[in-house]
Amino acid sequence: MKLNNKHIFKRPRLLIIGCGDVGMRLLPLVRARFRVFAVTSNPERRAALRAAGAVPVVADLDRKDSLHRLAGLARHVVHLAPPQPEGTRDCRTRNLTAILPDGAQVVYVSTSGVYGDCGGALVDETRTVAPKNARARRRVDAETVLRAWGRRAHGRVSILRAPGIYGHDRLPLERLRAGTPALEAGDDVYTNHIHADDLARLVALALVRALPGRVYHASDDTRMKMGEYFDAVADAVGLPRPPRLPRAQLAQAVSPATLSFMSESRQLANHRIKRELGARLRYPSVEATLRSLPGVAA
Fold it and tell me: Membrane spanning segments where (predicted)?
């Protein structure tokens, strides 16, 4: 898409940090309202971002010296970039807040992993965070840093806590083909989901309707355990269901990272996105989405 609209320079500027899959789904939803700048650390992605309607900006959150071009560029920011893969502090978010203009709006996509294991309980956004691994601690750090920046710089920070992101082209097919086991029913955990398209829509709604300082669960209506999810995907695409193992045996068969995802159980209440953001999910449940996938090839 060529940005040749004569009013383009009058639109408010939006900066998307971490414009990967969800960011690319977001672009068509916001490019009529904003002049969009998309950050990439890979110069080879500039053409794709430009074709999708964004002005590409090459910068790297791991390199402070590359961020000067972002300073003051936009007063609306969508932060989709994950933390760096080690440590308990999110250095990338810390680097970002150093160049954000006072009074800016930031929508940050975090993770429901910040709650840790809730024993399968239904939790809302008032639940105290209790991260159990370094990955989730980095996300809590990012949220804390952004809130502190908001108080200091009179910024408007809204946080979307997303669970497992899936989509028509984001299904665990390789896991199923590999026969990776799942937990047996007695040990299984509740898992939560959001379709990537709906997550992009929730980000777009948050830019317009989110309250400053507010946390929202970016989750669908599904109430499903993890093994049931794998079974449902397998049935939908014609692959064998994964074998089920008790937790003690499964711990010997999967990586520690995979096991950590299978050690936390919670159900996310999503009333707030409907009541405050006016969200109407296009894909309200995994089951309904999978029923629409008869053509998915295994």
Answer: none
Give the CA count within 13 Å in the CB-facing half-sphere of 189. 17
CATH topology of domain 9-168+192-221+269-282: Rossmann fold (3.40.50)
- Please indicate, yes or no, whether the overall pTM of this predicted structure exceeds 0.90: yes
The residue whose two tokens read 């449902």 is: 232
Count of positions (residues) in the chain: 298
- Look up tokens 């409907």; give the residue: 274
The SS3 of residue 140 is: helix
> Which residue intervals of 2-72 are DSSP H helices?
21-30, 46-51
Q: Are 55 and 37 in contact (CB under 8 A)?
A: yes
* Distance, C-alpha 225 to centroid of its chain: 20
- The conformational region for residue 278 under phi > 0 = left, psi -120 to 50 = alpha, else beta, is left
Spatial distance between the Cα atoms of 250 and 244, rounded to a whole number of angstroms: 8
**Do 60 and 41 contact (CB within 8 A), yes or no?**
yes
pLDDT tens, position by position, 22-43: 999 999 999 999 999 999 999 9
Measured at the CA of 268, the angle between CA 262 and CA 269, to 5 degrees, comes to: 165
Gap between the Cα atoms of 145 and 90, Å rounded:
9
Closest CA to 1 of 58, 76, 51: 51
Domain residue extents for the chain: 9-168+192-221+269-282
CA dihedral 211→212→213→219, nearest 10 degrees, is 40
The residues pairing with 13 across neighbouring beta strands, listed in sequence order, are 35
